[in-house]
Amino acid sequence: MALLLSAPVQAFEFQDATGKIHKLEDYKGRWVLVNFWATWCPPCLKEIPDLIALYESRKDIMVIGVAMDSGDPQVVMDFVRSMSITYPTVLGNREIASQLDDISLLPSTYFYDPDGNPAARQLGIISRESIETFIESKSSKK
Predict the structure, then answer these.
(1) How far apart are CA 70 and CA 141, in angstroms?
(2) How confident is the model at residue 141 (pLDDT cuts 50, 70, 90)?
């Protein structure tokens, strides 16, 4: 599945569930993948193992998950633990999502290049393979 090119979006600032602030500018030199998901979304759950694998195996990629569940934050965090999600998790809402776009479909993934520029977005499920293929295609053009 190919990644869709994105219109320029603004930089973001998210606070994760541990209280740490994540700003796009903090990750200069790395690809940044922001993935909007929810515990009740089957395609979202299918892509989580690929995102974990990317985050754990590649130091050139930062993954930030934004959980768009509207219920009890503890339910989300229990779910994060049960799925062994190791990348930062942000408890999302419309205000947080609006920093990037109007999120109308889950999962939605926004991808930034190592210079902090919007590189692509994917509406719907994404795979480790498609992400790595995209990075390789961009890296080989330099």
Answers:
(1) 41
(2) low
Q: 59: which 2 tokens?
A: 């130091």
User: In this structure, are strands 108-112 and 31-37 parallel, antiparallel, or unpaired?
Assistant: antiparallel
Q: Is residue 89 within 8 Å of 36, Cβ to Cβ?
A: no
Q: Give the tokens for residue 66.
A: 């934004």
- Domain 31-139 is classified in which CATH homologous superfamily? Glutaredoxin (3.40.30.10)
Give DSSP secondary structure letters for 64-86.
EEEE---S-HHHHHHHHHHTT--
Domain-by-domain residue ranges, the chain?
A: 31-139
At a CB cut-off of 8 Å and minimum separation 6, what does 46 contact?
A: 125
The H or E element spanning position 23 is strand 21-23
How many other β-carbons are positioned within 10 Å of the β-carbon of residue 76?
21
Residues 65-81: tens digit of each pLDDT = 999 998 888 999 999 99
